[in-house]
Amino acid sequence: MSTHAAPAKPLAAKVLVIGHRGASALRPEHTLASYAVAIEDGADFVEPDLVSTRDGVLVIRHENEIGGTTDVAARPEFAGRRATKTVDGVQITGWFTEDFTLAELKTLRARERLADIRKANTAYDGQFSVPTFDEMIEYVAAESSARGRVIGIIPEIKHSTYFRGVGLPMEDKVLATLAAHAYTRTAPVEIQSFEVGNLKYLHGKLGKGHPNIRLLQLMDDAGEHPADDAGTTYGAMMTPKGLRAVATYADAIGPSTRSIIPLDKDGRLAPVAPLVHDAHAAGLEVHPYTFRPENHFLAADFRNDAGDSARNEAGSVAEIRAYLATGIDAFFTDDPALGRKALDTP
Predict the structure, then answer these.
(1) Which helix (H) or strand (E) holds 217?
(2) pTM
């Protein structure tokens, strides 16, 4: 079993806890309330996913389709905005941020996306608005000042090619937003994307060894491919040769946890894959996603009998520790307090 493997060392001097969409196990994702809990619970970084409004403002949602994360479907004045679009090759029906101005989006209220599993979070439905990237930076800056510790920001640019295709490119706006705030001119920032071309573009703009901004190449399942490169699979990018190529423009990779320790046919941890070792050999840090505290998401090794949607804090901590033993340099978690516990308690 993988947990018997000899512990490996990370490249990073300190393994970082990344609040995935904030503390999304405890509050509706991508709300200032979610970021507040993540910061209170010890996250080193907090993550906003960036999409664009019709008037070109960067706002924070997991996807540009917002039917599942806001109350837009219950708003009769926006019924006519429902549309079917093809985003990154997938046909989706719903409501899309690029069809709303910021003023219109600000009338909507956030909802829990995983309502069947995170029923407690539905108590917060309707309480929070959709934040802009500017608002999130200002909030993190204020929290950093109040707490006397630096809190990093790790924004993901969503659907880069798609947004460029509808006349709303985001990369230069992200850099301009970061430059416009005193906090993000010095605080650690790591820009992520599942696409390749935009990271290479950002690398060209930023140069190598930027003082506070790094780049993270996200990676989906091995058989999938970046939306902007149908000829390359993520599996090929995870080979030693592929990783050396990624290292020419990025500082780290963000694979799924199961690309590091796969699951066997019974849903239990299988032997450790070579990905962390190979990435480190290429000079890349490894920041996997996503540890979640409910039985539904845990490897079978760590589940208990409390039910599929039940929180299982001990199981989540144990699972994180199994992955820490592979030498990962940071990790995304929906519950940063548990990530902190996994790191801080032997």
Answers:
(1) strand 213-218
(2) 0.97
